[in-house]
Design a protein that fits this description.
Number of strands of chain A: 14
CATH class of the largest domain in chain B: Alpha Beta
Strand content of chain A: 5-15%
CATH architecture of the largest domain in chain B: 3-Layer(aba) Sandwich
Order of helices and strands of chain B: EEEHEEHEHHHEHEHEEHEEEHEH
Oligomer: heterodimer
Radius of gyration of chain A: 33 Å
Distance between the termini of chain A: 112 Å
CATH superfamily of the largest domain in chain B: P-loop containing nucleotide triphosphate hydrolases
């Protein structure tokens, strides 16, 4: 027998890729089946539901409601389960494609084949990528096609405009499906390349399966909680209303979990498209890193937990960092930058030693498990102990460094002028709320630098009035840099002066954005795609005023020319002076709502404005049309009730307050006739203010129609005490009239302080 | 030609190959001997490009093997394990190898399968150990590569299976210009198949010679002398071993039959006869000097 000629073409990348793809066909078929239960199944159900809802008069209401529940809850469980199943099968596909990395029996068979490393790596990568993403993309494209199909149903737009229960449900389902579609693809890409990188560093099946899952928990956990530490302890990033959990900035691209939290919960990927470029670079780096790790790893190390020298230590450190960042959030937060605590204040009442003990214990457990799974030799105990101490200390040092360096300099960072497109300021003080239009960069940054250098802290004296200031720098690339500060005293005055040097009240978003009652509507030509702006004017307008109800409890509608009213409001706002606003911050404005009905589509919208007692033109115009505002300010008597502490032990006969009644069941029984807790009464009684020495007072007013209690610290309105408690209010009033409690007649005053 | 120069293979705390140098000419049937964990499989995996040596050079026809697809297409490695093929049928193995080895002969494959009577549609995990070995051997031979590396070719097989596999290999060696490297700890198999052998010990090559030269060089004679003889009485030849048993003295020496006989005749033996040594005996006496325990090698 003669030897065959060796001029036959040698196999290359394509041969290898097709071979590997063929080996994955069974798993791919399973994936196709699972992916059907993501978008395709959901959209089929939504399509069916929409069709039924659009034909509601012929539909069975029970069936319709069943379909609605299926679409909005049950289907999402199926979707989530299918996504989870698909993720598991995808991991199996990757382990099958790169089987020689973790299965010793395939090392000789696969690595002796006449293909280069490059052909093998990219052949396996492309085969696994194809097996995973073709079903995934088919699912997404099916979803996209069905979204378009539903939207193009004849009469669908009218159906949505009807704004009924089922049309809203249908539109909600479509909105959610549209909104998550990009993330459905992006998150999978992230999971793929992160998993590829991780399995390239491992040599054992156990680590190859566990590590991608563990890292998808540990990495986001570390990012999220270090960010929380930064937010809580960096001057200017702490929110007075709690941390923005998940708002981690561009570092979100390091994990699919943080990516979803950041860009689905906060920024929106459509607002920062440059993030996709950075993400693409990151994923490409993971791919290239995987290539070189596989190229240089030693085949004889297959069967060992890790094939890179320090991989085990790195992964262990990440797991320990996740645990550390969680506990060090609680340990470090007493050092909070502005002296405030987070919304989970109760967590900080636990002694720090408990947090430290829990941290050390859990870190030890995580460390030992990671060492054992990773093939570490605990026999060398002294070295293991040293590594544990070094790992935990290093993680703690990192968390502490975030705090001590003021978020690695974030506390004193101000974006440079050439990177900033707009600067906005938002703050409230008393009843005033400012949401400014674009302010001059230089003026704001001068004020901002002053705050950074002087670092005023929120006063622990609860009687001090403060404002929650937010400064936002909007970058040219769509990024947003926000800082928040609690300011008191002269800083607030400076803020008012700054606003009034740059357009005053009329320049703020409260008054500056709506010139008249018209609105822009964009019409799209479905054939050409051309968009045309159409200006619409309302066919009807009416005005509602705060606390102005008819005998049936509905808000009274006043008809008057909206454009004249808007012009009067803007003119009054333009005339407001710094002194008027600053000195009357605690004089409550009242809201006026202008409602517009636009032609053709039975479409209503509204704008609301705060009207101050010194808006003379506006009040005069309103009076001409029979609209009275600030009626509740016509008090004929007023007094201040001192609240004794503790609230639940009060002496009947001395000064007693609504809050006393609310929290003391015996008093409640006497005053109200019921020992039951009443939330309306309790809410009324919560509004209070404090003297400099910390004593608590409630302002009670007597007007023509009712007793009114109010709070002058948090900007809430005066609250009318419910009618059923009039007797109790009268009792308090009468008691207060006769004893030594401070009593001030404020009826003639236009302000409280 | 296979050229290995100063090849070192070390990982973790183990030095598997400690600077070995070997040259294996084309067309040679080379036996790689050594006890378990001597480094035979490691060397074979370096030769077929699975492992990369830590240092030194390993070239085939002047080219590096590692990550060289062209060179790897000329080499077929038959592992001592067959578990990786458990889920495959012979038909699938044929398709697999024919895709990657350009000179694969379907006709040869079919003929060999028919000759040994293996089923083509059953998965390999249903085969006996011998049948699996046959299957893999047939695939290897059918790829018609220039170099065939076989790790523990006959380990665990009965005599019948060994005969069948030997015939397949001999036919292939006769038919093509095939260089075969066997690794084994069985001296008898190496003696039967190979014309050259090397012995690995402590990561080094302690023996690398044509077997014919080995056998012709070391001689055993049995003679009767009228006195006790020692090595000092035979200064002209290199004595490996002298032992007296009753009236007979056994002398094992290097130098070839004629030379040793001439030296012994000077002592006027009453009787003298030369005896052919087995390869194992040669190894025992040859390797004693370097401290190698030849009992680790099987007959």
């Amino acid at each position: 027998m003669t030897a065959q000629s060796s001029t036959t073409k040698r196999p290359g990348f394509l041969t290898y890729f097709l071979y590997r793809l063929g080996k994955l066909k069974f798993l791919t078929a399973i994936l196709v089946l699972l992916e059907f239960f993501t978008y395709p199944f959901y959209m089929i159900m939504l399509d069916r539901y929409t069709a039924m809802a659009m034909d509601a008069e012929h539909a069975d209401e029970n069936m319709l409601e069943t379909m609605r529940v299926l679409v909005h809850s049950f289907n999402w469980y199926i979707f989530a389960a299918a996504v989870l199943g698909a993720a598991i099968v995808s991991l199996i596909i990757m382990l099958s494609a790169f089987r020689y990395l973790h299965f010793k029996k395939y090392v000789n068979m696969d690595l002796s084949l006449p293909v280069t490393h490059r052909q093998r790596f990219f052949g396996d990568m492309l085969a696994s990528f194809t097996s995973i993403f073709v079903p995934h993309l088919l699912s997404a494209l099916t979803g996209l096609a069905m979204i378009a199909k539903i939207r193009s149903i004849d009469g669908y737009e009218q159906f949505i405009n009807d704004s009924n229960y089922h049309s809203s449900s249908s539109e909600l389902g479509l909105y959610v499906a549209e909104h998550i579609l990009p993330y459905f693809i992006i998150v999978y890409l992230m999971l793929y390349f992160m998993t590829l990188f991780i399995i390239s560093t491992t040599g054992k099946r156990v680590t190859a399966i566990m590590l991608p899952i563990v890292m998808q928990i540990a990495i986001p956990m570390a990012i999220l909680f270090i960010n929380v530490i930064a937010q809580s302890t960096t001057y200017g990033t702490e929110s007075l209303y709690g941390v923005r959990f998940g708002d981690v900035g561009p570092v979100a691209i390091l994990s699919p979990v943080t990516f979803m939290l950041q860009y689905m919960g906060y920024s929106g990927i459509e607002n920062q498209p440059w993030v996709l470029i950075v993400l693409a670079v990151y994923l490409a780096a993971l791919c290239i890193g995987s290539y070189f790790i596989q190229k240089h790893r030693r085949a004889e190390r297959t069967g060992e937990a890790f094939v890179l020298r320090y991989a085990r230590h790195t992964y262990t450190a990440i797991c320990v960092l996740a645990v550390t960042s969680y506990f060090w959030w609680a340990i470090l937060c007493p050092l909070a930058a502005q002296g405030t605590y987070l919304f989970m204040k109760s967590g900080y009442e636990t002694p720090v030693i408990f947090h430290i003990s829990a941290w050390l214990f859990l870190s030890l457990v995580v460390f030992v498990v990671a060492e054992l799974v990773g093939g570490g030799k605990l026999k060398k105990l002294p070295f293991t102990v040293i590594r544990f101490v070094a790992t935990t200390a290093g993680c703690a040092a990192l968390c502490t460094a975030v705090s001590l360096t003021d978020g690695f300099g974030a506390g004193s960072y101000i974006p440079p002028a050439d990177e900033v497109k707009n600067v906005y300021v938002h703050f409230n003080y008393g009843y005033d709320y400012f949401n400014t239009n674009d302010l001059p960069y230089d003026e704001i940054t001068e004020f901002h630098k002053k705050i950074i250098s002087e670092r005023p802290l929120k006063s622990n004296n609860i009687s001090d009035k403060y404002t929650d200031l937010m400064i936002q720098y909007i970058g040219e690339n769509g990024t947003v840099c926000s800082r928040r500060y609690a300011l008191t005293g002269e800083y607030i005055r400076e803020l008012y002066e700054l606003i009034f040097r740059n357009g005053g009240l009329a320049s703020t978003n409260n008054y500056g954005t709506v010139p008249n009652s018209s609105r822009s509507v964009w019409e799209v030509d479905v054939k050409t795609g051309k968009q045309t702006e159409i200006i619409e004017y309302p066919t009807d307008t009416y005005v509602n005023v705060q606390n102005d109800f008819d005998e049936n409890g509905g808000m009274i509608k006043y008809r008057l020319p909206a454009d004249d009213l808007i012009a009067a409001i803007r003119a009054d706002a333009s005339d407001v002076t710094f002194e008027q606003m600053y000195l009357s911050a605690y004089a409550a404005p009242e809201d006026i709502i202008i409602n517009y009905i636009y032609p053709g589509k039975n479409d209503e919208s509204f704008n609301s404005y705060k009207i101050y007692p010194f808006f003379k033109r506006t009040l005069t115009l309103l009076e001409n049309y029979g609209v009275k505002m600030f009626r509740t300010q016509q008090y004929h008597d007023a007094f201040i009730i001192k609240v004794t502490e503790p609230r639940w032990r009060v002496e009947v006969g001395n000064s007693i307050s609504i809050s006393d009644i609310a929290y003391n069941s015996e008093l409640r029984r006497i005053a109200v006739g019921s020992a039951e807790y009443d939330s309306a009464l309790a809410m009324s009684a919560e509004r209070s203010f404090y003297s400099e020495s910390g004593e608590r007072y409630i302002l009670m007013l007597v007007s023509e129609n009712a007793y009114i209690t109010g709070d002058t610290t948090s900007g809430y309105k005066y609250l009318t005490i419910p009618e059923q408690y009039t007797e109790a209010a009268a009792m308090i009033y009468n008691n207060a009239q006769t004893d030594e409690t401070a009593h001030e007649n404020l009826a003639a005053s236009g302000s409280i302080f | 030609m296979i050229e290995i120069k100063d090849c070192v293979m070390a990982y973790n705390d183990t030095v598997a190959l400690d600077g070995i140098s070997l040259t294996i000419p084309d067309g040679c049937s080379y036996g790689l001997l050594g006890a378990n964990a001597a480094g035979k499989s490691t060397l074979m995996k370096i030769l077929c490009g699975i492992y990369k040596q830590t240092s030194g050079s390993v070239k085939i026809d002047g080219m590096d093997v590692y990550d060289n697809a062209e060179m790897k297409s000329k080499i077929f490695f038959i592992d001592d394990e067959t578990i990786q093929f458990s889920s495959m049928t012979l038909k699938e193995m044929k398709k697999y190898y024919s895709a990657f080895y350009p000179d694969f002969s379907s006709e040869l494959f079919d003929r060999l399968v028919a000759t040994v009577g293996l089923p083509t549609d059953r998965k390999l995990h249903t085969f006996s150990k011998g049948m699996k070995r046959q299957a893999v051997m047939i695939c290897g031979v059918s790829c018609r590569t220039r170099y065939l590396l076989i790790d523990e070719a006959f380990d665990g097989l009965d005599q019948t299976m060994r005969s069948i596999i030997k015939k397949i290999l001999i036919d292939a060696m006769l038919d093509n210009e095939l260089t075969v490297i066997f690794s084994s700890h069985n001296l008898g198999e190496i003696d039967e198949f190979c014309d050259r052998a090397g012995l690995l010990y402590n990561g080094k090559v302690v023996f690398d010679r044509e077997l014919d030269d080995v056998e012709s060089d070391i001689v055993k004679i049995r003679a009767a002398f009228d006195r006790d003889i020692t090595a000092d009485d035979l200064p002209d030849i290199e004595i490996l071993h002298i032992e007296k048993s009753g009236s007979l003295t056994e002398i094992i020496a290097k130098g070839g039959t004629a030379k040793v006989r001439t030296a012994a005749e000077k002592l006027s033996p009453k009787f003298m006869d030369d005896i052919r040594l087995s390869l194992k005996e040669i190894f025992i006496y040859e390797m004693e000097g370097v401290g190698y325990d030849s009992s680790k090698l099987d007959d």
